[in-house]
TrEMBL record:
Membrane-spanning intervals of the chain: none
Subcellular location: Cytoplasm
Keyword Cell inner membrane in record: no
Name listed for the protein in its UniProt record: Ribosomal RNA small subunit methyltransferase A
GO molecular function: 16S rRNA (adenine(1518)-N(6)/adenine(1519)-N(6))-dimethyltransferase activity; RNA binding
Gene name, Swiss-Prot/TrEMBL: rsmA
């Protein structure tokens, strides 16, 4: 299917079948009650392979592209094996499940410009049980970074809190049409059943607000300096430590100390 990619939607169509197959093969075991959801169908290269194995629910923001996809997938749309929704997922209500009203797994080549927002959305959605997604390489490494890594950030802590993440493989620019200017990476998150405590994400944003500065100074921009000093003393933390040098469990301990003083 021929189609002129639109820059405003960040369209880069994955055409290399080797990488499409690798994505499909990376999908974790699907339980009977779990749905496969795809965001950004594109020309349908990934959808074609997914439909050989699973019924899927797919979102596509481009209405012109949806018209072509409706013709291409007329049979599976009629049978109900394929559900195609022409909508920007970021405009969807997030009550009672964001992308689906039952348990689901997200499998997508995400548009670079909205990837972080979408991943944060599915991380926080209790009905999403996991995902295999492709993003810009540096974004993938932020979500999958371990404490001590230079990429370790608030996104890393959030991901470790809500699941287990790992980088699967890189995808070169020449695997796409048109070619992006960056390398992509596919990564997977298998979620646990935990939820974020109210205020924890805001505390993390403060902790990592200036990554090159010391954690103590970052926290002191939001909380009383003497209060932060007491927390560091209780947890035996050095005042010169930087945000990426702490582990996720320590951030939860810091948050528990903050909650005590509320």
């Amino acid at each position: 299917m021929q189609y002129q990619a639109k820059k405003k939607f960040g369209q880069n169509f994955l055409k290399d079948k080797i990488y499409v197959q690798k994505i499909v093969q990376s999908i974790p075991n699907i339980h009977k009650n779990e749905k496969i959801v795809e965001i950004g169908v594109g020309l349908g290269d990934l959808s074609d392979e997914l439909l050989k194995l699973y019924p899927i629910k797919a979102y596509e923001i481009d209405s012109d592209l949806c018209s072509l996809l409706e013709k291409k997938y007329s049979d599976v749309l009629e049978s109900g094996r394929f559900e195609l929704i022409n909508q920007d997922v970021l405009t969807l209500e997030r009550e009672n499940g964001w992308l689906h009203n039952q348990d689901y797994i997200l499998v997508s080549n995400l548009p670079y410009y909205v990837a972080t927002h979408i991943i944060l959305g599915v991380l926080k959605d209790p009905l999403c049980k996991g995902f295999v997604v492709m993003t810009q390489k540096e974004v993938a490494h932020k979500f999958c970074a371990k404490d001590g890594d230079c990429d370790f950030c608030a996104l890393s802590v959030l991901t470790q809190t809500l699941g287990d993440a790992r980088i699967l493989f890189d995808v070169p620019a020449n695997a796409f049409e048109p070619m992006p200017k960056v390398t992509s990476s596919v990564f997977m998150v298998c979620k646990n059943n935990k939820t974020l405590q109210l205020g924890f994400e805001d505390m993390l944003k403060t902790a990592f607000c200036s990554p090159r500065k010391k954690l103590f100074k970052n926290l002191a921009t939001r909380y009383n300096k003497d209060f932060v000093k007491k927390i560091f003393e209780r947890l035996k933390l050095q005042e010169n430590i930087r945000a990426h040098e702490l582990s996720s469990p320590i951030y939860h301990q810091i948050f528990e100390e903050i909650k005590k003083e509320r």
